[in-house]
Each structure stands twice: as C-alpha cells, then as structure tokens.
Amino acid sequence: MDAVSDASVETVVIKSSSQIGKSEIGLNMVGYHIDQDPAPMMVVLPTERDAESWSKDRFAPMVRDTQCLRGKLSGPKSRDGSNKILHKKFIGGQLTLVGSNAPSGLAMRPIRILLCDEVDRYPASAGAEGDPVNLAKKRTVTFWNRKIIMVSTPTIKGASRIDAAWEKSDKRRYWVPCPSCGEYQTLRWEQVHWEKGGGKKDKESKHLPESARYVCEHCGDIWSDPQRWATIHLGEWRAENPFVDTAGFHLNEIYSPWIKLEKMVREFLAAKEQGEEAMKTFINTSLGEVFEIRGEAPEWERIYNCREEYPIGTVPEGGLFLTAGADIQRDRIEVEVVAWGRSRESWSVDYRVLLGDTAKAGVWNKLSAMLEERFPHARTGAGMIIERMAVDSGYATQEVYAWSRTAPLGRVMPIKGVDKSRFPIQGPSDVEVKIGKRKRKRGAKLWTVCGPVFKAELYGNLRQETPDEAEGEGFPPGYCHFPQYDPEYFKQLTAEQAVTRVKKNGFAVIEWQKTRERNEALDCRVYARAAAEYDLVRLTERVARNKESKLEENAKENNKGNAVKVKPSLTMPEAETDTSSRWADPILSDDPWL
Ligand SMILES: [Zn+2]
Question: Which of 204, 279, 432, 559 has the lowest CB atom count within 10 Å?
Fold first, then answer.
C-alpha cells in the first residue's frame, strides 16, 4: 500500500475485515519509519494492555526478524531504558505506544507519524478529555509532513469511527479481472453462491457450503478458490471519490488469499442461525462492513397479512416449550404466551388482557391461574405449561416482587428493563420486598433485561420473507408465526423505531423511540423472549428431540387417564369473563383490516 509512504497523502484510512493483514500494514509503516525516515511516532491501541501486547507480540518479533531494524534499536535489556515496552528510542526518532483510554499518554509530545489501530474499539472519550483520535491528532499539528493512519474493523453504522473516516476519504476499492471475461470488478458477498439441497424438514442438510463459489458479475462464470487467489495479484486500487488529502481503503475477507469461500459460507450460515449479534460480527469481521441496525419498524400490514390459521390458545407442531411475558399497567396486566422451537422459530400462542386494579389481589390471581393452565400441543395433544414467565417490575414494583414469591420456584422472573448493557440478560440479584409492614432484605430475585437487543432481533425476524411452501422452502431461523389476532396487536408490536442520535462528543448512539402511544404487545414479546433466553441457548438438537419425546409421553399419560387438564385449577376470585378479551378494543370496529 504505497499511500502510506506517498508524501501527498496526509491521512490513510483502512476499513477492513479482521483477517486481511491490516495490522501488518501498520507494522510495516512503523518499520519503514525506523529504517528509512526516522520520526517521532505514536501507536494508539484501544487499551494499554493492547499496547503492551502489540509491543511484545508484533513489534518485537518484527525487529528480531528484520536485519535493518535490529541494529537501530537497542536490545530490550539495555540499561539506558531506550527500549521499554511502551517507549522505544532509535536513531533520529522514537516510538510511543499508548492506550486510547489514557488521556495523559495521548497528550504527551509532538508526533509526526500517528497510527491509530482498531479505532472502533476506542471509548467515546479518553477520560474527560474528549475523542481519543482527535486528542492524538492534536500532537501532529506542528509537522507539515505529518501522517495519520487509521485502521479498524468497522462496527455499527452511525457509531463507527472508521466508517465515518472512510466516507470522507477517496474510497478506494480493489478491482480484479475475471479469469474468463477479463472484466474488472470488486469482490462482493452477493456474488458468493452455494447450492441448496435436501428436504424441507432437514434444515441441517439444506445448505451445501462445500459448493461455495464466486460468480463473475459480468459473464456469470464460476471462479474456483485458486482462480480467485490468482486474480487478486492482477488487481488494482480504484478510487470512488476525488482525492483531497485522505486515501481510504476497503477490503473484505473474500480478498484473503488464506480463506476458502466454503469457510465463509459456513460462518455466515452459523451466524444466521445464532441471530442478530452473530450476524453483526460476521458483517463486521468477515465482510469489513458496518452493521446497519434496521431500526425503522417493519410494516405491520405485511405481518398481519401473513397470519396463520392455527387456533389461538394451542401450540403448533414445532413448539417445544412455552414462555410468557407480562406487562403491568395500573388497571390491567397484558400477557403474551409464546411457543419456541428449533432455530429460535416462534409462535404466538395467546395474548390476553387481564383486567383489574394491579394494587389489588384479584388480577394477580388471574396471572397465577395462567401458570396452572395447560395449552394443548397440536400434534400430540399434550398439555403444555408456561415454563417461565417474565414480569416487568417497572410499574407496581412491590406487587410484582410480592407476587413472584407466591409462584412456583423458578417459573417467574421479575425483570427490569435497561437500555444499555453488555449482556442481553443479567442476574438475578436479590431485592428487598415489603410484606405488609415488614421488609425482607432478600425477598425476591430480579433480572435485568436489555430491551434494545431483543427489539433489534425481533424486528430483524419480523422482516423475514415468508417462505414459498410450494417451493418446499422451510421457515428461516427466528421466523415469528402469528394466529388471527386483530390489527391492534400488530400495530403495537411495531410501535417503536431505533434512531441514531449523535451526542455532544460526536459519538453516535442508537435509541429506541415510541411511534405510537401503545406498545404493550412489543414489551410483552420482548419479555417472553427474555424468559426463553436460557432455554434457547441450550436447545441443541438432542435437547429438542428429548422435549419432543416428553410431549408424546405426556400425551399418552393424558389419554390413559382420559382427562386432559386444560382448565386452570385455581378458582377465579372475580366473576369477570375478560380473561380472554384479546384485542376487543371497540375503536377497531371500523378498521379496514377487520
Ligand atoms: Zn467474467
């Protein structure tokens, strides 16, 4: 990459996948300046620990193995301290290594050559001093011949530093000629194709990663892995924008001479199976692209039109276990019961509005009754219980805690929603419960649920195409099935959107905002999903088969006794018949969808 030593280029931006030798570029640049053009240099890494390992594991071996460098640096054991781990002197210059989280290190001395590595992993601010990249850049202003190199695997669109810098650059991409037709093109994931085979039932054998190949976008001919590797040597960089002072480079893993397309396809399929977070990692680290949180809500009409015919209150064949999410309001509790299957496929089983003042016992008894209820499984007829119910404690906190103590052990999770967390679910922690006038220090358990993670996953799932059953296609991982609910349910489910907000320090954050007043259905779904997390993570094929045979046994037991328990065993304290008042909202009567 000649731009690094080209005097007309002040800033070099490299946005790329993780395994493409981008750290070697930085290393080579440092080596070049020790040997050919000595200068004060600084290398910034996300943390001081990263800086230490860069020094020991990358820089030291390079010096050891490169003859022209070896003579220019004193040995690591030299007594004058000219070769410390984070500070190295050489003839005509020095090299300082710092962590982006240490403002003192960033503000030290004038620097001509600045390398900022993995900039998307830097904190928004170094201490209280502001953006670490800007702080480091200030060190370079006294040099007319300064050079700034920014390197990173990108992260989320709108919040990615490297992507923002790349957008301002001349955007160079690498063009290679097709071995068949000779037309130049960039290598893109859309052109990686593979075969699909096997039956609809057997999802494992559906995709055939070993058939992965690159398809020329001009002539449609197939390139083998060796052909692709060979053509990379014939390629050239072409800029998309006119050059001002910043040269930007982008590379993905398809350009890697070490990686087979089969491996990439396997990783892609695994990520698709695991959900949104894994897909984000694949897009960032393999494709070197930003991940776009598609925050705009899916069209509720489209999901409504894909409703299915299974009866409300029953569990369709693929459902292996049930969870529920409950949203507490002043005058009612809203509950969704969801069945979960392989590959996070889900079926909404029922949605109920339990009316009653949540400061009084009545409505809570109705919620208890739901824990006793048996929901019939469509294929076996087995009665399935709600294995876990997540209940939001944001409103009526003490009532939720107190009620959770009455529930069967481990089946109720009081939860608290947070917007930011390193984990989708954390806990449980012990919380104090007031019982009458007494307080119990560790009276209940509380889990923390990061709503945005589950909302983003849900919206990704809701956007999936309904497969063409005539074509024998199966449902994609995470697909959400719904029975014949009213439009209001679907409007509430899609009642929020994610927006990118740029903070004062220039760093972008993603926020979820309501677009409609009522969003209880969305909350209930998020809670039910959170309640399923532990079981979904552990749902291997073996566990799934085990659950299926349990359902069959359960069904046999029921037939023997000839008494399928479908009615709740607890008596209702109030005579209201509203427990199944699903979406009986009168304002809907003139809705065109009814
Ligand atoms: Zn071609």
Answer: 204
Q: How far is the CA of 187 from the centre of ligand 1 (A)?
A: 12
Residues of the chain scoring pLDDT < 50:
202-204, 562-594
2-171+240-251 falls under which CATH superfamily? P-loop containing nucleotide triphosphate hydrolases (3.40.50.300)
Question: Top-level CATH class of 300-588?
Answer: alpha beta
Q: Residue 177's beta-bridge partner residues?
A: 184
In 216-292, at which residue ranges do the beta strands (DSSP E only) sit? Answer: 222-223, 236-239, 246-251
- State residue 582's pLDDT score: 38
Distance separating alpha carbons of residues 121 and 471, to the nearest angstrom: 44
Q: Domain map of the chain by residue range? A: 2-171+240-251, 300-588
- Predicted confidence at residue 576, as pLDDT, reads 37
Ligand 1 centroid distance, CA of 587 (Å): 59
**CA angle, 452 as apex, 447 and 453 as ends, to 5°?**
75
CA of 285 to the centre of ligand 1 (A): 27
pLDDT of residue 171: 96
Domains 2-171+240-251 and 300-588 agree in fold: no
Query: Coil, strand, or helix at residue 262?
Result: helix
